[in-house]
Amino acid sequence: MKRLSSAILVLPFLFISLTNKRHKSKQETVVSIKATDTLPGKGMAEHPFLYAGEWQNSSFENQQMFIVRDGKIVWTYTMPQSGEFGDATLLSNGDIIFARFKGASEVTPDKKVIWNFDAPPKTEIHTCQPLGNDRVFLMFNSVPAKAVIMNKKDNSIEKELIIPTGGTGTHGMFRHCRYTKDGTFLIAQMDMNKVNEYNTSGKIIWSVDAMSPWAAIRLKNGNTLISGNQYGYTREVNKKGETVWEFTRDDAKAQGVTLYTTQQACRLANGNTIITNWSGNANLSKEEEHKSAQVIEVTPGKKIVWVLSQWDNPNLNRASGIQLLDEKGKPEKGGLQR
After folding, report:
1. Cα–Cα distance for residue pair 147/161, rounded to 1 Å
2. pLDDT tens digits for 140-167?
3. Residue 179 in contact with residue 137, Cβ under 8 Å?
4. Tell me: the pLDDT tens digits for 6-50?
5. What is the pLDDT of residues 198-238, one digit of tens each?
6. What distance in Å separates the CA atoms of residue 132 and residue 246, rounded to the nearest whole number?
């Protein structure tokens, strides 16, 4: 097991409006705490997984994603364009489909690009959800913002829905949104501090307040799992909007782990929750960042049973998106809760 000698606790920092440029987040206080001596789990060997992260090395160049099996990197892909990885999915046929900030692409295991879409000018794409083999749901961070279902065969738009936003700063609009099995659009609206569900006519049919929601997914039990971006929470709410489960910074701190920016949240078949912990806006030194957790796995009882902190030999870099490959279900058929 990997040893972690110390960690840095960052108390909840002030909410700031996101713009088209990266801004370092303001923090109230930074103090040091002693972490647990041994990290829970087996590190890279705990699960096989697909791993991708935004703004690696504080850059938009040479961005990488990885497949890890049996504790080793078995596949690496470097983005040829300038951009960043966020929403990435390993399909049942072995291809990987992903958003890349200025578009979306699909590559084969031998790294051949077999589908590509370049975003329109002044548009960002951070959501890329496969819908079967031929269609994809893309979220356009743009003015106006759009939820788009696209046919990959010819990039024709089968459905386009205008989504209201809280402002005109495209970067702070959306990250992970989802098209549900009921044919609705579940939109995590960071700049509105809400998760809204829209029908195909654009009417809001369900809504819940949530500070800066980075991701929202509809669980198989009908509840919604939300991650809280710079607020560091992961929360499950029911159809009434009531919180039925939540994991917070304080819950992590009590177990020697610091949460910075909670991004993707996944619910596993055993009831555990996977949370990615992005550290790019935490104003950390390289040494401090390399002591941080990239991914954690939490039980329904809020016990951390796995911490991934893999910054050296090899360096997985910052974490935004993860897909555990030991979960059953075809992702393009909605078989995974992510």
Report:
1. 5
2. 999 999 999 999 999 999 999 999 999 9
3. yes
4. 333 333 333 333 333 343 333 322 222 233 458 999 999 999 999
5. 999 999 999 999 999 999 999 999 999 999 999 999 999 99
6. 31
φ, ψ at 17 (rounded to 5°)? -75, 135
Domain ranges of the chain: 7-13+37-333
Helix (H) or strand (E) holding 145: strand 145-151
Alpha helices in the chain, H assignment, sequence order: 249-253, 286-289
Tokens of 171: 């970067």
Measured distance CA(276)–CA(261) in Å, rounded: 8
Asked if the 7-13+37-333 domain carries CATH number 2.120.10.30, the reply is yes
Closest CA to 217 of 264, 279, 249: 264
Place of tokens 């929202």: 216
State the number of CA atoms in the 13 A half-sphere of 150 facing the CB: 25
- Report whether 301 contacts 270 (CB < 8 A): no
Cα-Cα-Cα-Cα dihedral sign, residues 323, 326, 332, 338: negative
Buried b (16+ CB within 10 A) or exposed e, 8-35: bbbebbeeeebeeeeeebebeeeeeeeb
Show the CA angle centred on residue 227, arms to residues 253 and 308, nearest 5°. Answer: 55
Q: Identify which of 163, 170, 139, 196 has the alpha carbon closest to the alpha carbon of residue 17.
A: 170
pTM: 0.90
The residues near 59 (Cβ < 8 Å, ≥ 6 apart) are none
